[in-house]
DNA sequence: GGGCCAAGCGCC
DNA sequence: AAAGGGCGCTTGGCCC
């Protein structure tokens, strides 16, 4: 059988293949296939042998001068050698090219493509290049390049079908094919053409990395797996084992590791508590297990190791590895530490130097300096550095883009180095663990002002079990109702269409092309409303008077011409002069955010936005203020656009149109941020549950959620399509949604020991109303005369404006908001804002004193502390710009409050997790949204479980609450998240 | 086509 | 001069 693999090269502007071009089986139409086959057979008699990859590698690792191509040719023995030196070829392509096609080709480039680019990475056969094909390579730009392969053992069957190819593939995959065939061609995926090469940096890193090879015990069969596992479970049972997996079949950017990804190999490095490394034979301190070649059975041999809760395992990013291992049916236990969390606990502010990546941490001497004997190569080197290749241009200069082969391929074809790379992960994780542990052991732990051991003790008591909980929650996931989502998608899209048409119609009266504008583009909106405006920061820089944009050609598919171009170019110019601007973006241009636009439009009720009368109900205010109750036709309710567009009917229309624009934006954002992603196949998997990733990766110790972020699902009135209704309990189950009331304010009261606040919480009633009362004499009078109660009902608020102000202040002050900020929010003078602030602080002197103290701490110690004693570090305020200093001071005020609230929420979750009754009833934590937790469990025990959850949350410290305030908890059972609010 | 940035917006 | 903390994610626009 003759297999003809063909690859198409693009010859347009640059030579070479991008990304992951796949070989296609087929034949080149311009050739006579029979002739080629014949010719091929002829040519293949002149065989070209190359050294095995091992020999080649050895030379390179040893640092000996690589053999020159000519030499290589001569030195090759007569017998068959594995042509498996893709790696070498890449490095020494000039030599190879001069050697390889030497006699038949004068173009280096051609040789590169035809000869080296794809071959033979697995091919254990002599190969050659057909003259014709080579010639074809030199064809003018736009022509195709052929690569031909001969499987001479099957040469009797000159077939060119894709079936044949895939059959061969399957064989290769099963591993049979090497045994059965002496000479074969295997399908190759040539994602890296020869026009890519390693950089100098890579070369060096590869040399260094190769040095650890003899420390690694390679396990690729059941027997060796058994003996190693035996060691792990007996002699080294009490050791600390750093583990790391390499994983295939997952797109980590888009997919959750729950149900996605397979382990292709893993490594384990072990040491005892005195940092003495284990010896797995001949001084090898690390095990590297080949799951790809060894097979799944080899992995399963390690199940008793992974599942033993008494064998301590350390990971860097435990969550990912655990999920992937569990994909193979192994229940991971014995979680001992996550070095990412340790690092975060040590310093929560690593923004640069690689952040909390294993590479960044292990190469940072400030992190690693507690390791006693530091190996020179203890630091991880990224996959990109080791295996990434840069494109090389024709002139020999290096390009910018770096590409990396698939991990499976690296493991097979760049094997030794891959083993080193993978093993180093567990080795450096172990070192990192040791260093961070000793650092944390040196850091005092002060719990709510009382000394209590070291921060490593803190880790063991809190963050270790917390880390385990988070992974469990990720595994649980939340059930989403996709049918429901697709229904609301229809509604949302329809409403968006109506609104978009309305706006475009209006805008096109002023600027015709606006009919086709992208209403989602800030730039285009800015072009219409603020053309010619000067930048607020950079004087002299002005926004252009008019600009052209490319927009997709949707409805306007060419009518007369046959030109159905995908894009059309539109020209937009300003449609209004002197529009008053009161909001700017950080870069100095007028803001076109929802707030800014609403301020232009004024208060326009939603029903005016849709031409069809589909009133969404009056809960959807566009301005949000309750005290603007004027008739919509009263022009005082219109915004600044009214006058700018000339008032009267035109002014009205403009305001309506701009309000419509806001609607479009908000609908768009709901669709693309929530409604669509929640239906994405890549996000939810088994049984329609969504598994986000929960991380302790914030500055303050709050959780964050990713892929998707379930912590920012629209809530309350913003949830116009009831997106939260899509988060449901499984049939027969119920959700419990429980949240703290004013958690941060209560924390603030405790931390500051503010009598007024403590009293207010003790007295109960509505906290914000009470704040308002304390601020304003006339409210106090009213309360004393019993004209009003300190309870709050949405529609019976006697002093709504005052309460709103008080509420805003309550939240703002914890964040360090200034008078200037308040004045802008409230659209009052700075003086007035300052006065209001003063009122707030008047009976809360302790708060100002405490805030002052936090700022001092930031200056003196460069860190502040939470309730449980975690710290947040800051750069030394003395060494930064004054604008940054302001930020540091505000963060210093906020971090203890936010961080302590996070501590309390964490304790509550630990408490819930510890509760055996809850577990017996079958309740599991699903999600945490800062001051709210969501659980799922059997409907019949919902009420009992709810009571337990409330109890856990209000006494989150091992069944007690030592705070000076009560912790108010509001909990509901419901079938959906929406219903529980 | 991928990577990056600015802007904007969702949550607490 | 700017002047509220903490997140994640999307789009558009631009560059390579």
Layout of strands and helices, then pairs:
Elements lengths: L4 E2 L17 E2 L7 H11 L9 H10 L6 H7 L10 H6 L1 H8 L7 H10 L13 H7 L24 H13 L1 H5 L15 E2 L2 H11 L5 E4 L2 H12 L6 E9 L13 E10 L14 E5 H4 L1 H6 L1 H5 L4 E4 L2 H9 L8 E4 H8 L11 H5 L2 H4 L14 H5 L1 E4 L5 E6 L3 H7 L1 H28 L1 E4 L2 E5 H22 L1 E3 L1 H27 L13 H9 L15 E7 L14 E7 L20 H8 L39 H4 L3 H28 L13 E2 L2 E3 L8 E3 L20 E2 L4 E8 L2 H10 L2 H9 L3 H9 L1 H8 L15 H16 L3 H8 L3 H13 L2 H16 L2 E3 L5 E3 L8 H33 L1 H6 L2 E5 L3 E7 L3 H13 L14 E6 L7
Parallel strand pairs: 4-7, 5-8, 8-9
Antiparallel strand pairs: 1-2, 3-10, 5-6, 6-7, 10-11, 12-13, 14-17, 14-20, 15-16, 18-19, 21-25, 21-26, 22-23, 24-25
The chain binds a DNA duplex (12 and 16 nucleotides) through strand 11, helix 24, helix 27, strand 19 and helix 32.
């Amino acid at each position: 059988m003759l297999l003809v693999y063909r690859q198409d090269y693009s010859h347009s502007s640059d030579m070479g293949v991008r990304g992951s071009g796949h070989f296609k089986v087929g034949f080149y139409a311009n050739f006579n296939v029979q002739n080629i086959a014949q010719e091929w057979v002829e040519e293949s008699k002149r065989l070209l042998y190359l050294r095995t990859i091992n020999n080649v590698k050895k030379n390179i690792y040893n640092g000996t001068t690589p053999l020159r191509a000519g030499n290589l040719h001569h030195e090759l023995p007569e017998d068959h050698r594995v042509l498996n030196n893709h790696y070498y070829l890449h490095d020494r392509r000039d030599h190879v090219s001069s050697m390889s096609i030497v006699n038949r080709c004068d173009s280096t480039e051609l040789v590169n493509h035809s000869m080296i680019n794809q071959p033979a990475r697995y091919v254990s056969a002599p190969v050659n290049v057909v003259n014709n094909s080579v010639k074809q390579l030199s064809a003018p730009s736009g022509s195709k390049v052929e690569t031909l392969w001969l499987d001479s053992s099957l040469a009797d069957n000159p077939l060119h079908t894709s079936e044949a190819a895939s059959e061969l593939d399957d064989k290769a995959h099963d591993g049979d094919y090497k045994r059965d065939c002496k000479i074969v061609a295997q399908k190759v995926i040539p994602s890296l053409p020869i026009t890519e090469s390693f950089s100098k940096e890579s070369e060096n890193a590869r040399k260094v990395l190769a040095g650890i090879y003899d420390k690694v015990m390679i396990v690729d069969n059941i027997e060796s797996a058994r003996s190693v596992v035996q060691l792990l479970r007996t002699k080294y049972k009490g050791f600390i084992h750093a583990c790391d997996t390499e994983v295939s079949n997952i797109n980590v950017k888009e997919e959750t590791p729950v149900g996605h990804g397979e382990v292709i190999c893993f490594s384990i490095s072990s040491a005892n508590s005195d940092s003495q490394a284990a010896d797995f034979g001949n001084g090898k301190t690390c095990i590297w297990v080949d799951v790809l070649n060894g097979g799944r059975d080899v992995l399963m041999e390690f199940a008793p190791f992974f599942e033993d809760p008494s064998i301590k395992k350390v990971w860097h990013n435990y969550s990912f590895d655990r999920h992937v291992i569990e994909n193979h049916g192994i229940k991971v236990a014995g979680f001992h530490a996550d070095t990412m969390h340790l690092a975060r606990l040590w310093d929560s502010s690593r923004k640069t130097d690689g952040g909390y990546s294993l590479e960044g941490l292990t190469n940072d001497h400030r992190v690693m300096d507690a390791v006693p004997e530091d190996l020179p190569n203890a630091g991880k080197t990224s996959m990109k550095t080791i295996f990434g290749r840069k494109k090389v241009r024709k002139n020999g200069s290096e390009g910018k883009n770096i590409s990396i082969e698939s991990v499976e391929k690296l493991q097979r074809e760049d094997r030794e180095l891959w083993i080193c790379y993978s093993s180093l992960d567990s080795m450096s994780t172990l070192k990192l663990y040791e260093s961070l542990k000793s650092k944390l052991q040196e850091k005092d732990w002060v719990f709510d002002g009382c000394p209590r051991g070291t921060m490593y003790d803190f880790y063991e008591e809190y963050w270790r079990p917390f880390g385990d909980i988070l992974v469990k929650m990720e595994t649980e996931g939340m059930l989403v109702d996709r049918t429901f989502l697709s229904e609301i998608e229809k509604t949302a899209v329809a409403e968006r269409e109506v609104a978009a048409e309305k706006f475009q119609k209006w805008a096109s009266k002023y600027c015709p092309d606006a009919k086709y504008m992208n209403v989602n583009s800030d730039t285009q909106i800015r072009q219409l409303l603020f053309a010619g405006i000067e930048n607020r920061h950079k004087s002299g820089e002005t926004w252009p008077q008019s600009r052209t944009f490319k927009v997709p050609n949707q409805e306007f598919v060419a009518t007369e011409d046959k030109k159905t171009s995908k894009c059309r170019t539109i020209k937009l110019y300003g449609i209004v002069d002197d529009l008053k601007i009161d909001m700017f973006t950080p870069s100095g241009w007028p803001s076109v955010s929802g707030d800014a636009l609403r301020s232009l439009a004024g208060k326009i009720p939603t029903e005016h936005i849709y031409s069809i009368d589909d009133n969404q109900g009056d809960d959807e205010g566009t301005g949000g203020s309750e005290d603007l109750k004027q008739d919509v036709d009263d022009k005082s309710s219109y915004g600044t656009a009214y006058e700018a567009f000339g008032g009267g009917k035109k002014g009205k229309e403009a305001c309506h149109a701009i309000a419509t624009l806001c609607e479009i934006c908000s609908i768009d954002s709901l669709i693309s941020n929530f409604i669509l992603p929640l239906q994405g196949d890549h996000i939810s998997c088994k049984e329609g549950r969504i598994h986000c990733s929960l991380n302790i990766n914030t500055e303050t110790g709050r959780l964050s959620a990713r892929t998707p972020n379930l912590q920012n699902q629209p809530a309350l009135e913003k949830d116009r399509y009831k997106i939260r209704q899509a988060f449901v309990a499984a049939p027969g189950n119920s959700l419990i949604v429980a949240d703290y009331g004013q958690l941060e304010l209560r924390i603030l009261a405790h931390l500051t020991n503010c009598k007024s606040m403590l009293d207010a919480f003790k007295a109960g009633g509505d906290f914000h109303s009470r704040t308002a009362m304390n601020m304003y004499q006339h409210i106090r009078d009213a309360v004393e005369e019993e004209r009003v109660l300190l309870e709050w009902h949405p529609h019976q608020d006697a002093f709504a404006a005052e309460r709103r102000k008080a509420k805003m202040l309550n939240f703002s002050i914890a964040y360090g908001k200034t008078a200037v900020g308040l004045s802008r929010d409230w659209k009052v003078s700075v003086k007035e804002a300052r006065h209001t602030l003063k009122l707030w602080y008047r009976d809360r002197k302790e708060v100002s004193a405490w805030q002052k103290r936090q700022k001092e701490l930031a200056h003196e110690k460069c860190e502040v502390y939470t309730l449980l004693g975690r710290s947040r570090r800051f750069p030394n305020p003395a060494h930064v710009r004054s604008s940054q200093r302001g930020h540091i001071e505000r963060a210093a005020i906020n971090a203890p409050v936010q961080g302590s609230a996070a501590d309390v929420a964490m304790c509550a979750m630990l408490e819930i997790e510890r509760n055996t009754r809850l577990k017996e009833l079958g309740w599991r934590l699903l999600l945490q949204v800062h001051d709210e937790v969501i659980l799922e469990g059997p409907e019949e025990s919902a009420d009992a479980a709810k009571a337990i959850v409330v109890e856990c949350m209000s006494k989150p410290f091992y069944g007690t609450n030592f705070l000076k305030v009560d912790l108010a908890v509001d909990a509901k059972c419901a079938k959906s998240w929406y219903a529980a609010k």
